[in-house]
Automatic annotation (TrEMBL):
It comes from Pseudaeromonas paramecii. NCBIfam families: PRK05690.1. Residues 21-255 form the THIF-type NAD/FAD binding fold domain. SUPFAM superfamilies: Activating enzymes of the ubiquitin-like proteins. It comes from the Bacteria. Pfam families: ThiF. This is Molybdopterin-synthase adenylyltransferase MoeB. One of its GO terms (molecular function) is nucleotidyltransferase activity. Keywords: Nucleotidyltransferase, Transferase.
Amino acid sequence: MTFKHDTRPRLPLSDQQLLRYHRQISLKGVDIDGQAQLAAAHVLVVGLGGLGCAAAQYLALAGVGRLSLVDGDRVELTNLQRQVLHEAARLGQPKVHSAAAAISRLNPDCQVSAMAAMATADNLTDWLAEVDLVLDCTDNRASRNLINAACHGARVPLISGAAIRLEGQVSVFTWGAGEPCYACLSRLFGDQELSCVEAGVLAPVVGLVGSLQAMEALKLLLRLGQPLSGRLLLIDGLTGQFETLALPRHPGCPCCGQAPAAA
Ligand SMILES: [Zn+2]
């Protein structure tokens, strides 16, 4: 897999940065070179709710050099139970501005771009030309299918997460030969769609799923371990069980199948 960060200039890390990221640099497979790769990386986070807040804070702390944040919503009181980058003083502000302010305090090294807009096919096309990978942290199937189609078209890796009640799921789409896309998975859900507005969600569940999305992103950027591509991780908080299922490509998938539907 090639990333745009491979061809961006890599600046030497300062003494402060070597110390700040020491616990990560000392990991086998990261080292100073890996940390410099993260500093050159640019990640798009779509959705700054529970998943996006958790994922973005770890990407920023881990030293990802550039984050672009996209969300059209504003901070509401009901968000504060689980969306860790927002706070009462920023109620009513666009979520991306609230999250950008919090991230800049967590790690001033991280360059944050905030776009207070809903993702559309057009604006995604522009953003995907710039970024190394995308985290889908949205909460509805229409947005997820839109992001999936855009990432599939641009061949930009996509890390998808979802959380509801005490349940979560994570998968990674890297567009290798024979690999599935998000639409291969979402077709299994039928027409039923619950949101955490109706069904509720326990605060740490979004933190868990968002953290796993951040981990998969760092693994891809560093080419570390085995990504969750072609697999679906299911989390059941009620029983404390994690399960990984094979996720096959569906030949009739409207996005990645042999006869894609007209756009
Ligand atoms: Zn598909």
